[in-house]
Design a protein that fits this description.
single chain, mainly alpha, 22 helices
Length: about 425
């Protein structure tokens, strides 16, 4: 069905197919449901884009309601239906902006119910609905959120989150930066709250305060995985304010706290950005020392050496310790090395072959055969085709009881 010729009635017929009986098996028919949900989104978007928002507003709301209910019973582990639902919810807001048809207070009640009484999705973006809500609708949401907050169970995470989320969104809609920050600051259990505050201050052209809040957030949540985005923002702010040394120190501090390849990579990126690679030498020495003390740290060292452009040291370290580096990283290094230095990759390729044969995966023999083909090519390029022949004979003898493997070797032409 072409979306350029579809009518509102045909959209309504599609939406009617979004019903889902809760007694139905969660897997039965989910593929068809996913396709229908996305067809509804595609069709409705075309109608809104062609100026027919007023004809589909009610249908869009029905679609959102039906998919929301259906998601409580069908399996959507892939997130396909959830994506369609979010798209339809955002499209509903856009359609209302073009063609307001709902009573603002009625719309407010629907949004509050979706936020507090639904399964936790879709995500309601009040800013998108603000034009349709107007002052009366926003005032109604504010009043209803206050009432919900007064009765929300203190041990209910979902209820407390719903209250906090809507209070923050309502505060943002006021346009009063200080009020918005005050509401955000009521709950500073996550570094993301500090990031929101810093972003709001930056948008208000108050970078010094944004930097202060970002620093406070990192001080309170140094080891939180969500602190990475806050740290990135702080570094950006500091560089923009010509505080380059401080920006580098933020990266160095995090690397010293957690000296791994990821923090080294972030440090190296900032060093490259500001044109000062001085801190990298000390960081690499730290990683070398850790790898000497614990061979399990060799993988981190090799990754960091690659980031720093020290390819020769990265290769020699990996080739000397293939088991500690790991097959995936070793293979990527081998594939980059073999064109210019084919003789050097022969032993690592053999290690990778043995690693595949020691694996229990379904495709281990296929992967081993692929590696053997590359090893044969490397032997040929290195001027030692007889070396591969000898190795292959030894390999076949060693694994002669693995009839499945031997059969795949024969099929691939890997015979003595």
């Amino acid at each position: 069905m072409g979306t350029n010729t579809v009518s509102p009635d045909e959209l309504a017929a599609l939406v009617d197919r979004l019903r889902w009986d809760k007694r139905r098996h969660p897997y039965h028919g989910r593929g068809e449901y996913q396709a229908t949900a996305h067809q509804v989104l595609e069709t409705a978007t075309a109608l809104v884009d062609t100026g027919l928002a007023g004809t589909v507003v009610r249908t869009l709301r029905t679609a959102v309601n039906r998919i929301t209910r259906a998601q409580m019973y069908l399996d959507d582990s892939s997130g396909v239906v959830g994506d369609a639902l979010q798209g339809l919810t955002d499209l509903y807001a856009r359609a209302l902006e073009q063609a307001p048809s709902a009573n603002p207070k009625t719309l407010a009640s629907w949004l509050v119910a979706a936020q507090f009484d639904g399964p936790g999705w879709p995500r309601i973006h009040l800013r998108a609905f603000a034009p349709a809500l107007g002052e009366p609708g926003i005032a109604e949401i504010t009043a209803q959120v206050q009432a919900r907050a007064a009765t929300a169970a203190p041990d209910s995470w979902s209820a407390q989150f719903a209250v906090r989320d809507f209070r923050e969104q309502l505060a943002e809609l006021t346009g009063d930066v200080d009020h918005y920050i005050a509401v955000l600051a009521e709950d500073l259990k996550s570094p993301d709250q500090y990031r929101k505050i810093a972003r709001a201050l930056l948008d208000a052209d108050r970078p010094a305060e944004a930097i202060d809040w970002a620093k406070r957030g990192l001080a309170h949540h140094p080891g939180n995985p969500y602190s990475d985005r806050l740290r990135d923002l702080l570094v950006d702010l500091l560089i923009d304010e010509d505080q380059v040394a401080t920006a580098l120190q933020v990266r160095v501090t995090e690397f010293n706290r957690h000296p791994v390849a990821a923090t080294f990579r972030a440090l190296a990126a900032t060093c490259d950005r500001v044109g000062d690679t001085t801190p990298l030498a000390a960081a690499l020495e730290t990683l070398r020392a850790r790898a000497t003390q614990d061979s399990l740290r060799l993988r981190e060292l090799v990754q960091a050496l690659g980031t720093a452009g020290l390819d020769e040291e990265a290769w020699s370290t990996a080739a000397a310790h293939p088991g500690e580096v790991g097959a995936h990283l070793l293979r990527s290094l081998v594939e980059r090395r073999e064109a210019a230095h084919p003789a050097e990759v022969l032993a690592p390729y053999r290690f990778l072959v043995q690693a595949q044969l020691a694996d229990s995966g379904k495709y281990r023999y296929d992967r081993a055969v692929e590696l053997l083909r590359r090893l044969r090519a490397a032997h040929t390029t290195a001027g030692d085709p007889e070396g591969f022949t000898r190795y292959l004979a030894e390999l076949r003898a060693e694994h002669k009881r693995r009839t499945g493997f031997i059969a795949k070797l024969d099929k691939a032409g890997l015979t003595p």
